[in-house]
């Protein structure tokens, strides 16, 4: 690489690092220090902890190894902001992150600023090793994942406040025509290639690319809407055990589920809690905040099923090729952090809501995690999780692709998760 190429690459990387960090800080706008230390459940971390953790990733995996004369900002942060990297050392208990009134939000922001400036200075060096630059890119993608988690976790924290506070402005919606029933496109049986092709960034769990056989199937051209999900509820969907997996029914009964998370009924009207506070249900919006169990029960009620992740990716890849893949504006960049109503005739695969598949989160044939602690990033979770595809209204646009494999336990509801029907 000549000097000019080196300068261009480093300038682009520096700009991207700064832009990603600006995206994280934008999520803190309008929040108080008290807001940023809430923790409503063990699975949802305080905003302050998320900011500290994404900073910790760069300090621990990049600067500690490659910065000359490295000195930690605070040695105690190595344990405090470690999430699940056992190979790095001790970790503060996940369910006790909301007890951390210290360090203050001000000090955590000083930490992120210090690490950002040291990282940008380090990137000015010539001939940085490829492994180091790859970890910087991984760190940015990791931070974008936590940007989405900041949005989903904060919404869950605020849901437990009887004031149901708003922290984003409401968006006026134009009157939309009623949606026609979803159209199903048929895909013929045959071989297909699944997984990352090798160009651009991808997480290790998206590789290696491999061939699979897919039987003929049909897939809906859009996700299920609130209006359609209301019909399931009104037909007794939450009271019909024959529609539910055994573990799903047990969970529904134990948790008292009668509706999606964040829904409320007042009189004869349904409302949902959003970033703009409590708003009437819009029937054309994609149904979201559903567990895998609810998505699966709805699909059975609709005389359909959830797609496999191989079917979903095959269909999405074809849609990307013909230009019909996505609502390009329904990502985190809109600032809404709430899915837009679907438009009549529009088809999409990316953005809006994550879509549950019926596939367990397992390694692809030939998968090998990266060596060292960073290899704990994805591989250690390949059990007791189900795969979701497509991204959501809280996902940064440049963070998603058709091969992206998200995963959560089947009872998870606080993510922007919905469903698309297959048959």
Could you explain how this protein is built, in words?
The protein has 423 residues and is an alpha+beta fold. The chain folds into two domains: 3-159, dinb family like domain (Four Helix Bundle (Hemerythrin (Met), subunit A)), CATH 1.20.120.450; 184-418, Alpha-Beta Complex (paralog of FGE (formylglycine-generating enzyme)), CATH 3.90.1580.10. It is 33% helix and 11% strand. It is built from nine helices and eleven strands. The strands form four sheets. Strands 10-9-8-11 form a four-stranded mixed sheet. It has a three-stranded antiparallel sheet with strand order 5-6-7, with no helix packed on it. Helix 1 (3-26) runs parallel beside helix 5 (130-159) and helix 2 (47-66) runs parallel beside helix 4. The radius of gyration is 22 Å and the shape is globular. It starts with a helix and ends in a 5-residue tail after the last strand. 40% of the residues are buried. The mean pLDDT is 93.
The total domain count is 2
CATH superfamily of the largest domain: paralog of FGE (formylglycine-generating enzyme)
The chain-level structural class is alpha+beta
Report the average pLDDT across residues: 93
CATH class category label of the largest domain? Alpha Beta
The helical percent reads 25-40%
Largest sheet: 4 strands, mixed
Which CATH architecture of the largest domain? Alpha-Beta Complex
* Distance N to C terminus: 51 Å
Based on CA atoms alone, the radius of gyration comes out at 22 Å
Broad shape: globular
């Amino acid at each position: 690489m000549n000097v000019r190429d080196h300068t261009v690459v480093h300038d682009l990387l520096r700009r991207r690092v700064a832009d990603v960090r600006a995206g994280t800080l934008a999520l803190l706008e309008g929040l108080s220090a008290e807001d940023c230390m809430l923790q409503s459940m063990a699975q949802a971390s305080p905003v302050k902890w998320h900011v500290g953790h994404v900073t910790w990733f760069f300090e621990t995996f990049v600067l500690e190894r490659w910065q000359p004369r490295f000195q930690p900002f605070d040695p105690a942060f190595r344990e405090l902001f470690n999430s699940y990297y056992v190979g790095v050392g001790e970790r503060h208990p996940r369910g006790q992150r909301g007890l951390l009134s210290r360090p203050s939000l001000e000090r955590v922001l000083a930490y992120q600023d210090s690490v950002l400036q040291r990282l940008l200075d380090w990137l000015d060096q010539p001939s940085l090793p490829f492994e180091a630059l790859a970890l910087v890119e991984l760190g940015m993608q990791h931070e974008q994942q936590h940007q989405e988690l900041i949005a989903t976790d904060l919404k869950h924290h605020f849901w437990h406040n009887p004031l149901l506070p708003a922290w984003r402005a409401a968006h006026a919606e134009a009157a939309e025509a009623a949606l026609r029933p979803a159209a199903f496109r048929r895909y013929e049986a045959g071989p297909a290639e699944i997984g990352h092709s090798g160009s651009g960034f991808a997480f290790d769990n998206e590789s290696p690319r491999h061939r699979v056989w897919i039987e003929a199937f049909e897939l809906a051209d859009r996700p299920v809407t609130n209006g359609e999900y209301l019909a399931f509820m009104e037909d007794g969907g939450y009271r019909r055990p024959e529609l539910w997996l055994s573990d799903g029914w047990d969970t529904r009964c134990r948790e008292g589920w009668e509706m999606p998370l964040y829904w409320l009924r007042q009189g004869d009207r349904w409302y949902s809690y959003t970033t703009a506070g409590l708003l009437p249900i819009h029937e054309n919006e994609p149904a979201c905040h559903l567990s895998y169990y609810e998505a699966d029960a709805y699909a059975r009620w609709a005389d359909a099923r959830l797609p496999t992740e191989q079917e979903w990716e095959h269909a999405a890849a074809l849609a990307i090729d013909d230009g019909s893949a996505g609502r390009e504006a329904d990502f985190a960049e809109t600032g809404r952090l709430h899915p837009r109503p679907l438009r009549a005739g529009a088809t999409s695969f990316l953005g809006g809501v994550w879509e549950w598949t019926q596939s367990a989160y397992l390694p692809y044939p030939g998968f090998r995690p990266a060596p060292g602690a960073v290899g704990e990033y994805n591989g250690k979770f390949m059990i007791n999780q189900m795969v979701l595809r497509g991204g959501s209204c809280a996902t940064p646009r440049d963070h998603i692709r058709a091969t992206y494999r998200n995963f959560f336990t089947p009872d998870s509801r606080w993510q922007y998760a919905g469903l698309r029907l297959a048959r």
